[in-house]
User: Fold these one by one.
Assistant:
Number 1:
Amino acid sequence: MLNQNMLALGKKRSTIREIFEFGNQRAKVIGRENVFDFSIGNPNVPAPDSVQEAICDIVTNQNPAAVHGYTSAQGREDSRNAIAASLNARFGTDYAAKNLYLTVGAAASLSICLKALTASPEDEFIIFAPHFPEYQVFIEQGAGAKCVIVPAQIEDFQINFEAFERKLNPHTKGVLINSPNNPSGVVYSEATIDRLTALLNKKAAEYGHPIYLISDEPYREIIYGTREIPFIAPKYKNTLVCYSYSKSLSLPGERIGYVLVPNTVESFDDVYAAVCGAGRVLGYVCAPALFQQVIARCAADTADLSIYAENRKLLLEGLAAFGYKCIEPEGAFYLFPQTLEADDYAFCERAKKYDLLLVPGTDFGAPGHMRISYCVQTETVRRALPLFEKLAKEYAGK
Ligand code: PLP
């Protein structure tokens, strides 16, 4: 007999993947340019030139055995030093190589942290709707812990503190946040972060054990406007940061990211060792060697993110004009408007008639919404707007 949970997971694609595959099939019939695929968060801007130059230089001028060989499990020291230096320059911190563990992207960073922290099946991790759907899989199936979901605060997608406080209990091992957020694009305000950290400090003292804050930050660099987004690690001592270069450097298929374990984390040596142990158990061995070296050179760079700002503006203005209600988010490349009927699946199904591919909010724990992933060509957005309008007209007067 097989592991039935794995079998079930393997047989059922995520809704996002289903829609993405539907788009691929439609593209064969009507042409790629006629499919308005807003389903998946695959960046469409190229990696910056510095990445291409680094790859060419490394593979041309270095000994192939050294380029492609295993590295130490936690990653090359020069790469970890470069990441620490880039964080220190931006955030005034004093991280060093020993605070970093390189991973195969944020999904691995999360799986590793959750596995490292879970001591018993009774341990609970709290997440906030709307949330990245894989969190539940990583917590329940990967780490074997309990996933506790706090319902969304629909008005602004900040934290619903009353509901959150009710979920905290002595089994709470950690709290997982994601800002800028997938799917809402919302950035947690300073007030939210302050209230969150104060509450966690209070409850940790009451329960007599640490409550870890896992901060999932793959969209940290993708922000609009002038406000600096709060960097949470220095504000709460038991923070573990999960990062990935998938979005900031447009390298999702190359699988490179890290876990940051600051010195302030209680029993730092043990927590870092448990992170290494979890990476070992999950079979990661080491992060991709070539891209570790690329990151050593490009840790402080980003892809040209300006196209996302343009797409965001066009969509926000267009959707508002057609009567869609949407919070104006400050980050990531997602919008999360309300659907025009309560059944978000029915709405997204109806949108398919126009080859508009949208993801129902229910999959992110917030029914009655749709996620629009706008990391697409601006031309696609322009041509999709009249279709959003036609769709809205179907509901007019209903
Ligand atoms: N966390 C969030 C919020 C995401 O949106 C994603 C990917 O879209 C991930 C984690 C996984 O990132 P990676 O591709 O680096 O594993």
Note: DSSP finds 14 helices and twelve strands in the chain.
Number 2:
Amino acid sequence: MRKKIIAGNWKMYCGDPAKAAALAKGVIESCACQNRVEVAVCPPATALAAVVETCRGSSVRVGAQNLYPKDEGAFTGEISAAFIKALGGSLAILGHSERRTYFKEADDFINLKVKAALAHGLTPILCVGETEKEREDGVTEKVVETQLRGGLAGLSADEIGQIVIAYEPVWAIGTGKNATPADAQAVHAFIRKLLGSLASADVAELIRIQYGGSMKPENAAELLAQQDIDGGLIGGASLKAESFAAIIQAAL
Ligand code: PEP
């Protein structure tokens, strides 16, 4: 039985440590007194320390939204998996479509990030998903397969088993449009089957595959009820403790 994982991607919002700590406190108060669903929040790097401090002693995990795949060096403006780990972070969103689009991140670079995260004991949340044009062209599975093969290249079955995959159709992120539960389920089932061949049947059965893309309290229950949807990566609706808590409630 896979434990569902609901993670909040705060994007470039709530970077003020005091405001971020207040939001984290709200999340803890409204949802942390259960252990049936894993809950995580991923604030901007500037608020990571404050949110880690706020979440200490609670079951809410804290993660970063990105990392650079070297431990340290002359990489101005970047932060490493080692730094995130030292701060108390325990996961990292990698390959988010906003990073693929605006920062031209390619699968081989994302693969290095996944490896760096694993090397430092961070759980990577590896994001994959097609654009609207790619869906219209009927190449969703091909795109997702390329991203998964690239992002997971060179990893052992055991390493793949430590990763969370987030299927996020790009056209649904921040747009208010979401994939229908049936369409999302079909891609999740495809991903799980592919993981079976990239890792093993056992790993594919255990690995969590989140859906992301305008998940909100109104549509969460139906999406999360699908057989292969094991949680959500939530952007906009994670910025208010009440709506984030309602999604966690829907996962219970
Ligand atoms: C995201 O940022 O990963 C995301 C899914 O955003 P939203 O929920 O706002 O669509």
Note: The chain has one domain: 5-251.
